[in-house]
Write a structure and sequence with these properties.
elongated, 565 residues, 8% strand, three-stranded antiparallel β-sheet
Protein backbone atom coordinates (compact mmCIF):
# COMPACT_ATOMS: atom_id res chain seq x y z
CA UNK A 1 0.00 0.00 0.00
CA UNK A 2 1.53 3.31 -1.12
CA UNK A 3 0.94 6.03 1.47
CA UNK A 4 2.20 9.55 0.68
CA UNK A 5 5.12 10.34 2.93
CA UNK A 6 4.45 14.07 2.95
CA UNK A 7 1.14 13.90 4.84
CA UNK A 8 1.24 13.44 8.60
CA UNK A 9 -2.49 13.58 9.36
CA UNK A 10 -3.58 10.49 7.41
CA UNK A 11 -5.75 7.89 9.10
CA UNK A 12 -5.77 4.16 8.32
CA UNK A 13 -9.13 2.47 8.83
CA UNK A 14 -10.11 -1.19 8.66
CA UNK A 15 -13.36 -1.90 6.82
CA UNK A 16 -14.38 -5.51 7.31
CA UNK A 17 -14.01 -8.40 7.30
CA UNK A 18 -17.21 -8.47 9.39
CA UNK A 19 -18.85 -5.30 8.10
CA UNK A 20 -22.34 -6.03 6.71
CA UNK A 21 -21.62 -4.05 3.53
CA UNK A 22 -18.53 -6.10 2.66
CA UNK A 23 -20.71 -8.75 0.98
CA UNK A 24 -18.67 -11.46 2.66
CA UNK A 25 -15.45 -11.64 4.62
CA UNK A 26 -13.62 -8.95 2.64
CA UNK A 27 -11.27 -6.62 4.47
CA UNK A 28 -10.32 -3.21 3.13
CA UNK A 29 -7.39 -1.24 4.57
CA UNK A 30 -8.39 2.33 3.72
CA UNK A 31 -6.08 5.33 4.06
CA UNK A 32 -8.09 8.51 4.62
CA UNK A 33 -7.36 12.20 4.56
CA UNK A 34 -10.45 13.34 6.38
CA UNK A 35 -13.30 11.96 4.24
CA UNK A 36 -11.15 11.62 1.10
CA UNK A 37 -9.81 8.18 0.20
CA UNK A 38 -6.06 8.22 -0.46
CA UNK A 39 -5.52 4.49 -0.87
CA UNK A 40 -7.38 1.20 -0.49
CA UNK A 41 -5.97 -2.32 -0.22
CA UNK A 42 -8.31 -5.35 -0.38
CA UNK A 43 -7.26 -8.24 1.86
CA UNK A 44 -8.48 -11.74 1.03
CA UNK A 45 -7.97 -15.16 2.58
CA UNK A 46 -10.71 -15.42 5.20
CA UNK A 47 -12.86 -17.88 3.23
CA UNK A 48 -10.41 -19.92 1.16
CA UNK A 49 -11.43 -23.59 0.97
CA UNK A 50 -9.07 -25.08 -1.61
CA UNK A 51 -11.75 -25.82 -4.22
CA UNK A 52 -9.24 -26.31 -7.02
CA UNK A 53 -7.26 -28.95 -5.15
CA UNK A 54 -10.45 -30.70 -4.09
CA UNK A 55 -11.39 -30.94 -7.79
CA UNK A 56 -8.08 -32.62 -8.58
CA UNK A 57 -8.87 -35.42 -6.13
CA UNK A 58 -12.48 -36.10 -7.15
CA UNK A 59 -14.27 -37.34 -10.22
CA UNK A 60 -16.49 -34.82 -12.00
CA UNK A 61 -19.67 -36.40 -10.60
CA UNK A 62 -18.24 -36.43 -7.08
CA UNK A 63 -17.13 -32.81 -7.41
CA UNK A 64 -20.49 -31.44 -8.61
CA UNK A 65 -21.97 -30.95 -5.10
CA UNK A 66 -18.93 -28.83 -4.16
CA UNK A 67 -19.07 -26.32 -7.00
CA UNK A 68 -22.25 -24.58 -5.85
CA UNK A 69 -20.18 -23.11 -2.99
CA UNK A 70 -18.13 -20.94 -5.36
CA UNK A 71 -20.94 -18.53 -6.12
CA UNK A 72 -23.75 -19.63 -3.85
CA UNK A 73 -26.13 -17.02 -5.35
CA UNK A 74 -25.72 -18.26 -8.96
CA UNK A 75 -25.25 -21.96 -8.41
CA UNK A 76 -26.49 -23.17 -11.79
CA UNK A 77 -23.58 -21.46 -13.55
CA UNK A 78 -20.94 -23.20 -11.43
CA UNK A 79 -22.58 -26.54 -12.23
CA UNK A 80 -22.78 -25.65 -15.93
CA UNK A 81 -19.08 -24.84 -16.24
CA UNK A 82 -18.17 -28.00 -14.33
CA UNK A 83 -19.97 -30.29 -16.77
CA UNK A 84 -19.16 -28.23 -19.89
CA UNK A 85 -15.43 -28.80 -19.42
CA UNK A 86 -15.47 -32.63 -19.66
CA UNK A 87 -18.20 -32.46 -22.33
CA UNK A 88 -15.95 -30.43 -24.60
CA UNK A 89 -12.92 -32.50 -23.66
CA UNK A 90 -14.69 -35.69 -24.72
CA UNK A 91 -16.84 -34.18 -27.50
CA UNK A 92 -20.03 -35.28 -25.72
CA UNK A 93 -23.33 -34.36 -27.35
CA UNK A 94 -26.11 -32.93 -25.17
CA UNK A 95 -29.74 -33.70 -26.14
CA UNK A 96 -31.76 -30.75 -27.38
CA UNK A 97 -34.28 -30.94 -24.55
CA UNK A 98 -31.50 -31.01 -21.96
CA UNK A 99 -29.91 -27.93 -23.56
CA UNK A 100 -33.22 -26.03 -23.37
CA UNK A 101 -33.66 -27.04 -19.72
CA UNK A 102 -30.15 -25.84 -18.97
CA UNK A 103 -30.82 -22.43 -20.56
CA UNK A 104 -34.01 -22.03 -18.53
CA UNK A 105 -32.24 -22.90 -15.28
CA UNK A 106 -29.29 -20.63 -16.07
CA UNK A 107 -31.47 -17.62 -16.78
CA UNK A 108 -33.57 -18.19 -13.67
CA UNK A 109 -30.33 -18.35 -11.70
CA UNK A 110 -29.19 -15.10 -13.35
CA UNK A 111 -32.41 -13.39 -12.23
CA UNK A 112 -31.99 -14.70 -8.66
CA UNK A 113 -28.39 -13.48 -8.56
CA UNK A 114 -29.23 -10.01 -9.87
CA UNK A 115 -32.12 -9.73 -7.42
CA UNK A 116 -29.88 -10.50 -4.47
CA UNK A 117 -27.39 -8.00 -5.83
CA UNK A 118 -30.01 -5.28 -6.14
CA UNK A 119 -31.38 -5.50 -2.60
CA UNK A 120 -28.07 -5.27 -0.67
CA UNK A 121 -26.75 -2.67 -3.15
CA UNK A 122 -29.69 -0.41 -2.36
CA UNK A 123 -29.24 -1.07 1.36
CA UNK A 124 -25.57 -0.05 1.06
CA UNK A 125 -26.54 3.38 -0.20
CA UNK A 126 -29.34 3.87 2.33
CA UNK A 127 -32.52 2.50 0.69
CA UNK A 128 -33.94 -0.33 2.79
CA UNK A 129 -37.28 -0.90 1.04
CA UNK A 130 -36.00 -2.67 -2.12
CA UNK A 131 -34.03 -5.05 0.08
CA UNK A 132 -37.29 -6.55 1.33
CA UNK A 133 -39.02 -6.43 -2.06
CA UNK A 134 -36.43 -8.50 -3.91
CA UNK A 135 -36.97 -11.52 -1.65
CA UNK A 136 -40.55 -11.71 -2.86
CA UNK A 137 -39.53 -12.59 -6.44
CA UNK A 138 -36.41 -14.48 -5.39
CA UNK A 139 -38.44 -16.91 -3.33
CA UNK A 140 -40.61 -17.62 -6.37
CA UNK A 141 -37.49 -18.51 -8.35
CA UNK A 142 -36.36 -20.81 -5.56
CA UNK A 143 -39.80 -22.45 -5.56
CA UNK A 144 -39.24 -23.32 -9.21
CA UNK A 145 -35.77 -24.66 -8.44
CA UNK A 146 -37.11 -26.77 -5.59
CA UNK A 147 -39.84 -28.27 -7.76
CA UNK A 148 -37.37 -29.22 -10.51
CA UNK A 149 -34.23 -30.17 -8.56
CA UNK A 150 -35.38 -30.87 -5.01
CA UNK A 151 -33.13 -28.13 -3.56
CA UNK A 152 -33.60 -24.39 -3.26
CA UNK A 153 -29.94 -23.24 -3.40
CA UNK A 154 -27.43 -26.11 -3.78
CA UNK A 155 -29.07 -28.01 -6.61
CA UNK A 156 -26.59 -30.62 -7.97
CA UNK A 157 -28.79 -30.72 -11.08
CA UNK A 158 -26.44 -30.61 -14.08
CA UNK A 159 -24.86 -33.82 -15.37
CA UNK A 160 -22.33 -34.66 -18.04
CA UNK A 161 -24.48 -35.05 -21.13
CA UNK A 162 -27.65 -33.46 -19.77
CA UNK A 163 -29.43 -32.86 -16.46
CA UNK A 164 -30.26 -35.07 -13.51
CA UNK A 165 -34.06 -35.19 -14.01
CA UNK A 166 -36.72 -33.97 -16.40
CA UNK A 167 -39.03 -31.08 -15.61
CA UNK A 168 -42.00 -32.23 -13.47
CA UNK A 169 -45.58 -32.06 -14.66
CA UNK A 170 -47.00 -28.53 -14.55
CA UNK A 171 -43.59 -26.89 -14.06
CA UNK A 172 -43.58 -25.14 -17.44
CA UNK A 173 -46.96 -23.48 -16.80
CA UNK A 174 -45.83 -22.40 -13.37
CA UNK A 175 -42.65 -20.89 -14.81
CA UNK A 176 -44.61 -19.00 -17.49
CA UNK A 177 -46.83 -17.52 -14.80
CA UNK A 178 -43.74 -16.39 -12.93
CA UNK A 179 -42.37 -14.67 -16.06
CA UNK A 180 -45.56 -12.65 -16.49
CA UNK A 181 -45.57 -11.68 -12.82
CA UNK A 182 -41.88 -10.79 -12.74
CA UNK A 183 -42.12 -8.27 -15.55
CA UNK A 184 -44.54 -6.24 -13.43
CA UNK A 185 -42.08 -6.50 -10.53
CA UNK A 186 -39.22 -5.13 -12.63
CA UNK A 187 -41.33 -2.16 -13.72
CA UNK A 188 -42.08 -1.56 -10.04
CA UNK A 189 -38.36 -1.51 -9.23
CA UNK A 190 -37.74 0.98 -12.03
CA UNK A 191 -40.46 3.32 -10.79
CA UNK A 192 -39.17 3.07 -7.23
CA UNK A 193 -35.43 3.34 -7.89
CA UNK A 194 -34.33 4.47 -11.35
CA UNK A 195 -35.59 8.07 -11.20
CA UNK A 196 -35.18 8.54 -7.47
CA UNK A 197 -33.13 11.77 -7.01
CA UNK A 198 -31.40 10.50 -3.85
CA UNK A 199 -30.39 7.30 -5.63
CA UNK A 200 -29.12 9.20 -8.66
CA UNK A 201 -27.08 11.50 -6.43
CA UNK A 202 -25.32 8.52 -4.89
CA UNK A 203 -24.55 6.52 -8.07
CA UNK A 204 -24.40 8.87 -11.06
CA UNK A 205 -20.81 9.68 -12.01
CA UNK A 206 -19.38 7.51 -9.20
CA UNK A 207 -16.80 4.83 -10.04
CA UNK A 208 -16.38 5.61 -13.73
CA UNK A 209 -14.52 3.02 -15.83
CA UNK A 210 -13.46 3.89 -19.38
CA UNK A 211 -13.44 1.53 -22.35
CA UNK A 212 -9.67 1.00 -22.51
CA UNK A 213 -9.46 0.79 -18.75
CA UNK A 214 -12.10 -1.95 -18.62
CA UNK A 215 -10.27 -3.97 -21.28
CA UNK A 216 -6.84 -3.54 -19.69
CA UNK A 217 -8.12 -4.71 -16.29
CA UNK A 218 -9.73 -7.78 -17.86
CA UNK A 219 -13.22 -6.91 -16.64
CA UNK A 220 -16.22 -8.90 -17.80
CA UNK A 221 -19.98 -9.11 -17.40
CA UNK A 222 -21.96 -5.97 -16.44
CA UNK A 223 -18.69 -4.27 -15.41
CA UNK A 224 -17.50 -4.47 -19.02
CA UNK A 225 -20.82 -3.84 -20.78
CA UNK A 226 -21.54 -0.76 -18.63
CA UNK A 227 -18.40 0.82 -20.13
CA UNK A 228 -19.71 0.66 -23.69
CA UNK A 229 -18.44 -2.76 -24.86
CA UNK A 230 -21.09 -5.13 -26.22
CA UNK A 231 -19.44 -8.37 -25.16
CA UNK A 232 -21.60 -11.26 -23.99
CA UNK A 233 -20.34 -14.84 -24.18
CA UNK A 234 -23.85 -16.07 -24.93
CA UNK A 235 -23.57 -14.20 -28.24
CA UNK A 236 -19.82 -14.67 -28.76
CA UNK A 237 -19.38 -18.38 -28.01
CA UNK A 238 -22.95 -19.44 -28.85
CA UNK A 239 -22.88 -22.20 -26.25
CA UNK A 240 -25.94 -24.28 -25.36
CA UNK A 241 -28.79 -23.01 -27.61
CA UNK A 242 -28.71 -19.26 -26.96
CA UNK A 243 -28.35 -18.50 -30.67
CA UNK A 244 -31.87 -19.88 -31.25
CA UNK A 245 -33.53 -17.15 -29.18
CA UNK A 246 -34.25 -13.49 -29.87
CA UNK A 247 -32.68 -11.26 -27.25
CA UNK A 248 -30.39 -8.24 -27.00
CA UNK A 249 -27.13 -7.58 -25.18
CA UNK A 250 -27.65 -4.91 -22.52
CA UNK A 251 -24.96 -2.21 -22.40
CA UNK A 252 -24.38 1.43 -21.42
CA UNK A 253 -21.74 4.00 -22.32
CA UNK A 254 -21.15 6.02 -19.16
CA UNK A 255 -19.28 3.35 -17.16
CA UNK A 256 -20.41 4.57 -13.73
CA UNK A 257 -22.33 2.81 -10.96
CA UNK A 258 -25.66 3.90 -12.45
CA UNK A 259 -24.76 2.25 -15.75
CA UNK A 260 -23.94 -1.01 -14.01
CA UNK A 261 -27.32 -0.86 -12.27
CA UNK A 262 -29.14 -0.26 -15.58
CA UNK A 263 -27.30 -3.14 -17.28
CA UNK A 264 -28.36 -5.60 -14.60
CA UNK A 265 -31.97 -4.40 -14.61
CA UNK A 266 -32.05 -4.79 -18.39
CA UNK A 267 -30.47 -8.26 -18.18
CA UNK A 268 -33.26 -9.49 -15.92
CA UNK A 269 -35.83 -8.42 -18.55
CA UNK A 270 -33.83 -10.11 -21.31
CA UNK A 271 -33.57 -13.27 -19.21
CA UNK A 272 -37.38 -13.37 -18.98
CA UNK A 273 -37.57 -13.12 -22.78
CA UNK A 274 -35.14 -16.03 -23.18
CA UNK A 275 -37.02 -18.17 -20.63
CA UNK A 276 -40.38 -17.52 -22.27
CA UNK A 277 -39.04 -18.50 -25.71
CA UNK A 278 -37.35 -21.63 -24.30
CA UNK A 279 -40.50 -22.72 -22.47
CA UNK A 280 -42.67 -22.27 -25.53
CA UNK A 281 -40.28 -24.07 -27.88
CA UNK A 282 -38.85 -26.78 -25.64
CA UNK A 283 -38.63 -30.01 -27.66
CA UNK A 284 -39.32 -33.55 -26.54
CA UNK A 285 -36.80 -36.32 -26.22
CA UNK A 286 -34.34 -37.45 -23.53
CA UNK A 287 -33.03 -35.12 -20.85
CA UNK A 288 -29.67 -36.90 -20.62
CA UNK A 289 -27.31 -38.65 -23.01
CA UNK A 290 -27.51 -42.08 -21.40
CA UNK A 291 -24.89 -43.54 -23.72
CA UNK A 292 -22.37 -41.21 -22.17
CA UNK A 293 -22.53 -43.17 -18.91
CA UNK A 294 -20.29 -45.73 -20.63
CA UNK A 295 -18.03 -43.13 -22.24
CA UNK A 296 -14.36 -43.96 -21.54
CA UNK A 297 -15.34 -45.80 -18.41
CA UNK A 298 -12.64 -47.66 -16.55
CA UNK A 299 -13.07 -51.29 -17.57
CA UNK A 300 -12.32 -54.48 -15.66
CA UNK A 301 -11.75 -52.90 -12.25
CA UNK A 302 -10.02 -55.08 -9.72
CA UNK A 303 -11.16 -55.79 -6.18
CA UNK A 304 -10.49 -52.84 -3.83
CA UNK A 305 -10.11 -50.61 -6.88
CA UNK A 306 -12.05 -47.37 -7.32
CA UNK A 307 -15.40 -48.95 -8.23
CA UNK A 308 -15.34 -51.22 -5.17
CA UNK A 309 -14.03 -48.75 -2.63
CA UNK A 310 -17.44 -48.49 -0.97
CA UNK A 311 -19.03 -51.89 -0.52
CA UNK A 312 -22.82 -52.21 -1.04
CA UNK A 313 -23.03 -48.78 -2.65
CA UNK A 314 -23.71 -48.10 -6.31
CA UNK A 315 -20.65 -46.33 -7.71
CA UNK A 316 -21.16 -43.11 -9.62
CA UNK A 317 -20.27 -43.11 -13.32
CA UNK A 318 -16.58 -42.49 -13.86
CA UNK A 319 -15.12 -40.98 -17.01
CA UNK A 320 -11.54 -40.98 -18.10
CA UNK A 321 -10.50 -37.46 -19.06
CA UNK A 322 -8.43 -37.63 -22.24
CA UNK A 323 -4.87 -36.37 -22.18
CA UNK A 324 -5.39 -32.82 -23.42
CA UNK A 325 -6.16 -29.37 -22.08
CA UNK A 326 -8.80 -26.74 -22.76
CA UNK A 327 -10.40 -23.59 -21.36
CA UNK A 328 -14.19 -23.31 -21.17
CA UNK A 329 -16.27 -20.31 -20.11
CA UNK A 330 -19.85 -19.19 -19.58
CA UNK A 331 -21.47 -15.80 -19.11
CA UNK A 332 -22.28 -15.80 -15.39
CA UNK A 333 -24.25 -12.95 -13.73
CA UNK A 334 -21.02 -11.38 -12.48
CA UNK A 335 -18.98 -11.91 -15.65
CA UNK A 336 -16.89 -14.55 -17.37
CA UNK A 337 -16.72 -17.74 -15.30
CA UNK A 338 -14.09 -20.08 -16.74
CA UNK A 339 -12.29 -23.32 -15.98
CA UNK A 340 -8.91 -24.43 -17.32
CA UNK A 341 -8.89 -28.23 -17.38
CA UNK A 342 -6.00 -30.62 -18.06
CA UNK A 343 -6.83 -34.30 -18.45
CA UNK A 344 -4.29 -37.07 -17.90
CA UNK A 345 -6.13 -40.21 -19.03
CA UNK A 346 -7.48 -40.55 -15.53
CA UNK A 347 -10.82 -40.19 -13.76
CA UNK A 348 -9.41 -37.24 -11.81
CA UNK A 349 -8.44 -33.94 -13.49
CA UNK A 350 -4.70 -33.34 -13.51
CA UNK A 351 -5.31 -29.57 -13.22
CA UNK A 352 -8.50 -27.66 -12.48
CA UNK A 353 -8.01 -23.89 -12.50
CA UNK A 354 -11.00 -21.65 -11.83
CA UNK A 355 -11.32 -18.17 -13.36
CA UNK A 356 -13.92 -16.43 -11.15
CA UNK A 357 -15.33 -13.13 -12.45
CA UNK A 358 -15.57 -11.52 -9.02
CA UNK A 359 -11.86 -12.02 -8.30
CA UNK A 360 -10.86 -10.33 -11.57
CA UNK A 361 -13.38 -7.49 -11.27
CA UNK A 362 -12.36 -6.70 -7.69
CA UNK A 363 -8.82 -5.77 -8.80
CA UNK A 364 -9.94 -2.37 -10.04
CA UNK A 365 -11.51 -1.34 -6.70
CA UNK A 366 -8.42 0.50 -5.29
CA UNK A 367 -8.20 2.61 -8.44
CA UNK A 368 -11.91 3.44 -8.46
CA UNK A 369 -12.09 4.63 -4.85
CA UNK A 370 -9.01 6.86 -4.92
CA UNK A 371 -9.86 10.55 -4.59
CA UNK A 372 -13.46 9.60 -3.75
CA UNK A 373 -15.32 10.06 -0.48
CA UNK A 374 -15.46 7.38 2.21
CA UNK A 375 -19.21 6.87 1.65
CA UNK A 376 -18.57 6.18 -2.07
CA UNK A 377 -16.62 3.01 -1.23
CA UNK A 378 -19.84 1.15 -0.45
CA UNK A 379 -21.45 2.38 -3.66
CA UNK A 380 -18.52 1.32 -5.85
CA UNK A 381 -17.97 -2.00 -4.08
CA UNK A 382 -21.66 -2.82 -4.31
CA UNK A 383 -21.77 -1.99 -8.02
CA UNK A 384 -18.95 -4.46 -8.71
CA UNK A 385 -21.07 -7.33 -7.34
CA UNK A 386 -18.67 -9.76 -5.66
CA UNK A 387 -19.25 -12.98 -3.79
CA UNK A 388 -16.43 -14.07 -1.53
CA UNK A 389 -16.92 -17.78 -2.15
CA UNK A 390 -15.36 -17.36 -5.60
CA UNK A 391 -13.17 -14.33 -4.88
CA UNK A 392 -11.12 -15.74 -2.05
CA UNK A 393 -7.56 -16.88 -2.55
CA UNK A 394 -4.59 -17.72 -0.31
CA UNK A 395 -3.85 -14.13 0.63
CA UNK A 396 -3.00 -15.19 4.18
CA UNK A 397 0.27 -16.67 2.88
CA UNK A 398 1.66 -13.14 3.08
CA UNK A 399 1.07 -13.19 6.82
CA UNK A 400 2.56 -16.68 7.07
CA UNK A 401 5.68 -15.52 5.25
CA UNK A 402 5.86 -12.52 7.54
CA UNK A 403 5.77 -14.76 10.61
CA UNK A 404 8.48 -16.95 9.09
CA UNK A 405 10.75 -13.95 8.61
CA UNK A 406 10.17 -12.97 12.24
CA UNK A 407 11.13 -16.46 13.43
CA UNK A 408 14.19 -16.77 11.16
CA UNK A 409 16.46 -14.64 13.43
CA UNK A 410 15.41 -16.78 16.39
CA UNK A 411 15.90 -20.20 14.83
CA UNK A 412 19.07 -19.35 12.90
CA UNK A 413 21.32 -19.22 16.02
CA UNK A 414 19.66 -22.36 17.40
CA UNK A 415 20.28 -24.17 14.14
CA UNK A 416 23.84 -22.89 14.02
CA UNK A 417 24.55 -24.06 17.57
CA UNK A 418 23.02 -27.47 16.85
CA UNK A 419 25.13 -27.92 13.73
CA UNK A 420 28.22 -26.77 15.64
CA UNK A 421 27.62 -29.28 18.46
CA UNK A 422 27.11 -32.09 15.95
CA UNK A 423 30.30 -31.10 14.15
CA UNK A 424 32.30 -30.98 17.39
CA UNK A 425 30.98 -34.38 18.49
CA UNK A 426 31.80 -35.83 15.09
CA UNK A 427 35.32 -34.35 15.26
CA UNK A 428 35.84 -35.66 18.80
CA UNK A 429 34.88 -39.14 17.73
CA UNK A 430 37.21 -38.96 14.75
CA UNK A 431 40.11 -37.91 16.97
CA UNK A 432 39.29 -40.64 19.51
CA UNK A 433 39.14 -43.19 16.73
CA UNK A 434 42.53 -42.07 15.47
CA UNK A 435 44.05 -42.28 18.94
CA UNK A 436 42.69 -45.79 19.39
CA UNK A 437 43.95 -46.77 15.92
CA UNK A 438 40.48 -47.63 14.67
CA UNK A 439 39.10 -46.87 11.23
CA UNK A 440 36.46 -44.57 12.62
CA UNK A 441 33.33 -44.35 14.74
CA UNK A 442 30.09 -46.09 13.99
CA UNK A 443 28.63 -43.64 11.52
CA UNK A 444 25.03 -42.47 11.90
CA UNK A 445 23.93 -40.17 9.12
CA UNK A 446 26.19 -38.59 6.52
CA UNK A 447 29.78 -38.43 7.80
CA UNK A 448 28.56 -39.44 11.25
CA UNK A 449 27.04 -36.04 12.09
CA UNK A 450 23.99 -37.72 13.66
CA UNK A 451 26.08 -39.96 15.92
CA UNK A 452 25.44 -37.74 18.96
CA UNK A 453 21.70 -38.11 18.44
CA UNK A 454 22.09 -41.86 18.05
CA UNK A 455 24.15 -42.11 21.24
CA UNK A 456 21.57 -40.13 23.20
CA UNK A 457 18.71 -42.26 21.87
CA UNK A 458 20.62 -45.43 22.73
CA UNK A 459 21.24 -44.14 26.24
CA UNK A 460 17.52 -43.44 26.78
CA UNK A 461 16.54 -46.97 25.81
CA UNK A 462 19.28 -48.75 27.74
CA UNK A 463 18.22 -51.22 30.40
CA UNK A 464 18.07 -49.74 33.89
CA UNK A 465 20.69 -51.82 35.76
CA UNK A 466 20.45 -51.91 39.55
CA UNK A 467 23.02 -53.69 41.79
CA UNK A 468 21.50 -56.79 43.36
CA UNK A 469 23.52 -56.61 46.62
CA UNK A 470 23.56 -52.84 46.99
CA UNK A 471 21.22 -50.36 48.63
CA UNK A 472 18.64 -49.83 45.87
CA UNK A 473 17.00 -46.85 47.53
CA UNK A 474 20.29 -45.02 48.13
CA UNK A 475 21.50 -45.92 44.65
CA UNK A 476 18.35 -44.41 43.07
CA UNK A 477 18.17 -41.25 45.20
CA UNK A 478 21.76 -40.21 44.45
CA UNK A 479 21.29 -38.90 40.88
CA UNK A 480 18.13 -37.07 41.89
CA UNK A 481 19.95 -35.18 44.62
CA UNK A 482 22.70 -34.25 42.18
CA UNK A 483 20.23 -32.79 39.65
CA UNK A 484 17.85 -31.17 42.14
CA UNK A 485 20.65 -29.36 43.94
CA UNK A 486 21.79 -27.75 40.70
CA UNK A 487 18.25 -26.57 39.95
CA UNK A 488 17.80 -25.27 43.50
CA UNK A 489 20.99 -23.27 43.21
CA UNK A 490 19.27 -20.95 40.72
CA UNK A 491 16.16 -20.56 42.87
CA UNK A 492 17.92 -19.17 45.95
CA UNK A 493 19.89 -16.45 44.16
CA UNK A 494 18.38 -13.12 45.36
CA UNK A 495 17.35 -11.63 42.01
CA UNK A 496 15.69 -8.24 41.93
CA UNK A 497 13.67 -6.61 39.16
CA UNK A 498 14.77 -7.31 35.59
CA UNK A 499 16.70 -10.38 36.82
CA UNK A 500 19.51 -8.30 38.37
CA UNK A 501 21.31 -9.61 41.44
CA UNK A 502 20.14 -7.55 44.40
CA UNK A 503 22.93 -8.78 46.70
CA UNK A 504 25.92 -10.14 44.84
CA UNK A 505 27.89 -11.36 47.87
CA UNK A 506 25.07 -13.38 49.42
CA UNK A 507 23.95 -14.64 46.01
CA UNK A 508 27.32 -16.06 45.00
CA UNK A 509 27.96 -17.81 48.30
CA UNK A 510 24.44 -19.26 48.46
CA UNK A 511 24.88 -20.57 44.91
CA UNK A 512 28.17 -22.22 45.84
CA UNK A 513 26.68 -23.74 48.98
CA UNK A 514 23.60 -25.26 47.34
CA UNK A 515 25.42 -26.50 44.25
CA UNK A 516 28.00 -28.22 46.42
CA UNK A 517 25.33 -30.76 47.40
CA UNK A 518 25.64 -32.32 43.93
CA UNK A 519 28.89 -34.21 44.71
CA UNK A 520 27.14 -35.75 47.71
CA UNK A 521 24.58 -37.28 45.37
CA UNK A 522 27.41 -38.77 43.30
CA UNK A 523 29.01 -40.25 46.41
CA UNK A 524 25.65 -41.71 47.49
CA UNK A 525 25.28 -43.50 44.18
CA UNK A 526 28.78 -44.94 44.39
CA UNK A 527 28.37 -46.04 47.99
CA UNK A 528 24.91 -47.52 47.45
CA UNK A 529 26.18 -49.84 44.73
CA UNK A 530 28.08 -51.90 47.35
CA UNK A 531 30.99 -52.15 44.93
CA UNK A 532 34.39 -50.67 45.56
CA UNK A 533 34.95 -49.86 41.90
CA UNK A 534 31.63 -48.05 41.70
CA UNK A 535 32.43 -46.21 44.91
CA UNK A 536 35.80 -45.16 43.48
CA UNK A 537 33.98 -44.03 40.37
CA UNK A 538 31.63 -41.93 42.51
CA UNK A 539 34.62 -40.35 44.28
CA UNK A 540 36.20 -39.59 40.92
CA UNK A 541 32.99 -38.02 39.63
CA UNK A 542 32.58 -35.93 42.80
CA UNK A 543 36.17 -34.70 42.58
CA UNK A 544 35.71 -33.87 38.94
CA UNK A 545 32.52 -31.93 39.75
CA UNK A 546 34.29 -29.95 42.47
CA UNK A 547 37.23 -29.24 40.16
CA UNK A 548 34.82 -27.86 37.58
CA UNK A 549 32.79 -25.94 40.11
CA UNK A 550 35.60 -23.86 41.64
CA UNK A 551 36.88 -22.30 38.39
CA UNK A 552 33.31 -21.87 37.15
CA UNK A 553 32.42 -19.98 40.33
CA UNK A 554 35.47 -17.77 40.03
CA UNK A 555 34.57 -17.00 36.41
CA UNK A 556 31.00 -16.05 37.35
CA UNK A 557 32.25 -13.98 40.28
CA UNK A 558 34.81 -12.09 38.18
CA UNK A 559 32.32 -11.38 35.40
CA UNK A 560 29.72 -10.18 37.92
CA UNK A 561 32.20 -7.89 39.68
CA UNK A 562 33.24 -6.50 36.32
CA UNK A 563 29.63 -5.87 35.34
CA UNK A 564 28.71 -3.92 38.52
CA UNK A 565 31.89 -1.98 38.66
Amino acid sequence: MNVPATREDLMIVNMGPHHPSMHGVLRLIVTLDGEDVIDCEPILGYLHRGMEKIAENRTIIQYLPYVTRWDYLATMFTEAITVNAPEQLGNIQVPKRASYIRVIMLELSRIASHLLWLGPFMADIGAQTPFFYIFRERELVYDLFEAATGMRMMHNYFRIGGVAADLPYGWIDKCLDFCDYFLTGVSEYQKLITRNPIFLERVEGVGIIGVEEAINWGLSGPMLRASGIQWDLRKVDRYECYDEFDWEVQWQKEGDSLSRYLVRIGEMVESIKIIQQALEGIPGGPYENLEIRCFDRVRNPELNDFDYRFISKKPSPTFELSKQELYVRVEAPKGELGVFLIGDQNVFPWRWKIRPPGFINLQILPQLVKRMKLADIMTILGSIDIIMGEVDRLEYLKEVYGMIWVLVPIFTPVLGITIGVLAIVWLEREISAGLQQRIGPEYAGPLGILQALADGTKLLFKENLLPSRGDTRLFSIGPSIAVISILLSYLIIPFGSNLVLSDLNIGVFLWIAISSIAPIGLLMSGYGSNNKYSFLGGLRAAAQSISYEIPLTLCVLSISLRAIR
